[in-house]
Amino acid sequence: MAAHRSGPLKQQNKAHKGGRHRGRGSAQRDGKGRLALKTLSKKVRKDLSRVDQRHRASQLRKQKKEAVLAEKRQLGSKDGPPHQVLVVPLHNRISLPEAFRLLQDRDTGTVHLNEWGSTHSFMLLCPHLKHRWFFTAARPGDLHTVLDMAKVADTILFLLDPLEGWDSTGDYCLSCLFAQGLPTYTLAVQGVSGLPPKKQIDARKKLSKAVEKRFPDDKLLLLDTQQEAAMLLRQLANQKQRHLAFRDRRAYLFAHTADFLPSEENNLVGTLKISGYVRGQALNVNSLLHIIGHGDFQMKQIDAPVDPFPLNPRVIKSQKDPGMAMEICATDAVADMEEDLKVLMKADPDRQESLQTEVIPDPMEGEQTWPTEEELSEAHDLLKESSKVVKKVPKGTSSYQAEWILDEDGESGGEGNEYDDVEHEDFMEEESQDEGSEKEEEEECETMTTGESVCDDLYDEKVDEEAEEKMLEKYKQERLEEMFPDEVDTPRDVAARIRFQKYRGLKSFRTSPWDPKENLPQDYARIFQFQNFINTRRRIFKEIEEKEVEGAEVGWYVSLHVSEVPVSVVEHFKRGAPLIAFCLLPHEQKMSVLNMVVSRHPGNTEPVKAKEELIFHCGFRRFRASPLLSQHTAADKHKFQRFLTADMALVVTVYAPITFPPASVLLFKQNSNGMHSLIATGHLLSVDPDRMVIKRVVLSGHPFKIFTKMAVVRYMFFNREDVLWFKPVELRTKWGRRGHIKEPLGTHGHMKCTFDGKLKSQDTVLMNLYKRVFPKWTYDPYVPEPVPWVKDEISSTVPEVDME
């Protein structure tokens, strides 16, 4: 008799590993040099000893420390750009000329006043501190100027009042600056010496306590004497610099001078020559230039003139008297620029970035051919089969006779009259109850006379009745949207299957599929889309860090020749507005769909509807657009919001030029008086045209007759055809029941519905319908200048009523 032998499918159990755990050496011996696939695909990491790990960590710390010190030494030095300081007075009692007089101390250094635009700027050269500053100023009421100059300023110097700190205009300015992103800042108090000696210490303590809300753990410096101004300059030179991410990866320039040379063909367009110091990154002539508030332009060439404000000016000794020396001032340096002018780089047409912002759509692209006769016959046969209806008929009935036999549903056409009588009785009962409640309210109330104010007529003259009516209507709509989200009334004059023909039903909003390329609008043929936006952004940022760019280095004083610039740019500059240019990264001139996460600003409570025109400050750009609002979720579909709510963050979707995040976002709304109100702040989320914004519409009906799990529902539709059209869509109720339409009853839109449980009489039957929505193409890069914010005007926009 043969012994049993186990087959190849016998279970082989692993042997028990007794004793100590296997160490790294035994694992390497057992592996015999074999490596895992992941280890082979990556670089082999060397296992350093503990001493080598400490040495490596100390080297990295030393490198980072040296990099920070090198950056600190470069700013304001002879090889770097001047230290640009923006002075912002936060109270109307602060004297800006007095502050500039203290900072313009001839003993501290050489002062060069500006020769363009407004008089609120000067260059200060301090050879003994080995530092040079460029001081500019902006009033907090001039919002665009403050925000634009804060984008390029190295330090912001806030001047505070010793008693109040800042007024309402200054507080509004601080809100906008914090939302945009603050660079390095310093707080200085002006006017403490003017207070009585006994009140100075108390005033400083109260001011420090008030300032803690906005600026925690920040010291307050004084600015009343020359010694205090010198201490302030040392503080500005030695403090740690804060970085703004959107400007550190781009080259930018603040224009000190600007000249316009009109073209021969048209005097309104020409070449603009702007001069200033390169900051941020190296500037390449083949990249595009964005002038804030005016658009994108191409550069012809970059010149490298003599620096007009050298830290150590050249000294010329006289041949007759060797002891006599003369320093070359800035005006002499400007006069010698033409002799020492050097062309640094000229644009290469083959390598220069294009100004094309949109794709020119081909109308024949995606055009379908006409179907053949075989395809038409197949479609006709399918239509015939789908139109056949199965009926119960007596034996021997022909197909012609069967067409005249009605269904069971067709015999119930007269039931609508009974329902109408019951509806009329219910309505009469409700009306009688309302009349009784109105009488009770009249008995509870009593009448009283009040005196009229003398200023009523003057107050009414300032009120715009039409604007008041529009605002009241907006408040009503917002209130209704909060109480009944997405609910709409079914129209009586138009069939529901026509009114909501673009909508569809979904089994689940979260999991049901929806193709992002389905039924795209014509505007989507004009925009650009990335195959992988995150990888493109990562690749461009890596090239900025590692690749050396040919062109003007950081700190050089250069002149840019910008072509095809309108004359309005230089006129704007001559009126005193700042001229700021940012160098664009690849693809940033092209149009696409931008998504931004924003939150409602607490200082503004006016209702803001979707698709309402707003003013955007996105990174270094400023434009107008009409955005869509949607929920900020991690799903593939995002529900459309009709109003900008204050309780949660929303995503704003617009057509705009591509901008690589990170970038701050500020949303303003232009009032009827011309002022801009800050309504929301946030950041740029992504550039993604495939992000689906789904609009929901909720149709509501009311249970009329309730059985165990069935009910007759009315008022959702008003004709039989609509009920049959929307029969496949699932129903839900406000109390959590789910069901579907079984059949229509009568011709007045009543329908028999089944649910997964018994309905309550006070419940409401709902039907959700969805469609995808897209933003409007209303992008406009030209934003009108706002009316300056003044304290009186701010208070007049929100009138206060005296109740005494």
From TrEMBL:
In the record, the note on similarity to other proteins reads: Belongs to the TRAFAC class translation factor GTPase superfamily. Bms1-like GTPase family. TSR1 subfamily.
Q: Where is the composition biased (Basic residues)?
A: 13-24
Any coiled-coil regions, as ranges: none
Pfam families reported in the protein's UniProt record: AARP2CN, RIBIOP_C, Tsr1_G-like
| Subcellular locations according to the entry | Nucleus, Nucleolus
GO cellular component term, pick one: preribosome, small subunit precursor
Listed Acidic residues bias regions:
426-446
Q: Which residues form the Bms1-type G domain?
A: 81-242
* Keywords noted in UniProt: Nucleus, Ribosome biogenesis
Location, primary (coarse class): nucleus
Specify the protein name.
Pre-rRNA-processing protein TSR1 homolog
Question: Is the Lyase keyword given for this protein?
Answer: no
Ranges of biased composition (kind: Basic and acidic residues): 46-55, 65-76
Q: Name one GO biological process term.
A: maturation of SSU-rRNA from tricistronic rRNA transcript (SSU-rRNA, 5.8S rRNA, LSU-rRNA)
Which InterPro entries does the UniProt record give? AARP2CN (IPR012948), Bms1/Tsr1 (IPR039761), BMS1_TSR1_C (IPR007034), G_Bms1/Tsr1_dom (IPR030387)
An example of a GO molecular function for this protein is: U3 snoRNA binding
User: Which PROSITE patterns does this UniProt record tie to the protein?
Assistant: G_BMS1
> What role does it play?
Required during maturation of the 40S ribosomal subunit in the nucleolus.
Positions of the UniProt region annotated as Disordered: 1-84, 426-450
